[in-house]
């Protein structure tokens, strides 16, 4: 039974202190009691969109654990509120908390399309797949209002440049017209994240994401239109969704996904505190078991920064997860291949149109 004291519609249940800040923020019990007596709301729990104008938008990815060379993010912070999200820590660099601030203070990069176009037109730039959402979801609720992702996809099409997408939002189908045109030239690959087939699990893990049914439908629609889809069964959290690996793999394969990938959950930086607070409030009967099993996957800690190990885990539980994934791939993805994207067209379209000579 979930406690009625939790922050409804959010993943994180508090704001952790920013490690870069001299000051800390605390909601005191006497303040909460004052609000109760006076009939005032202590926290309006509203999402705030904050405009920012960065100087660059395409990021070189150097981590050997991430299967991409370049990424870009039109938004910082994510209203989806996934409790395990590794991107939470990045919000501290902007002066905010990795907790509730990450979900409620969304930075909107209004000049993202302009910066992308400048990058693709640069004589020094050589085509290499740029992945949207290497950090935060490009189809989070903010996209409905600002449509920066759609504008960027139009630029990728104009310059015939390969683009990857990672999302857990069925809003991607709004842009099916552009995705089909990109796919005509082998320029698009989509990664749909799906962590559970249980709507109750989805609701508490990822409170403002698209339903599981809608995500599976998105995989099916994209696949029927020939657009390659990789299913991201990530993260696998022992004691929460680790028992679903085979069922998840079958569900996404049945809808046409060409491949699947996974990670074992890790809780670096502030995420360990945020996740621990969350699970003790939402799943108190499971909390100790789940936390101990996560620790067993990372040499006794929730935090793991070791390249090559941090996303795979180690130990008996991690080994069981890997064995299940191998079985799932062998059973449901045999003879399926996710294609490499086309990098050969872009050079001829550097000025936005095909060069004849």
Automatic annotation (TrEMBL):
SMART domains listed in its UniProt record: Elp3 (SM00729)
Domain Radical SAM core: 64-310
Keyword Protein biosynthesis: no
Pfam families, alphabetized: Radical_SAM
Coiled-coil blocks: none
Keywords, ordered alphabetically: Iron, Iron-sulfur, Lyase, Metal-binding
UniProt-listed InterPro entries: Elp3/MiaA/NifB-like_rSAM, MJ0683-like, rSAM, rSAM_sf
Keyword Lyase in annotation: yes
Domain of life of the native organism: Bacteria
GO molecular function terms noted in the UniProt entry: iron-sulfur cluster binding; lyase activity; metal ion binding
Protein name, UniProt field: DNA repair photolyase
Source organism of this protein record: Maribacter litoralis
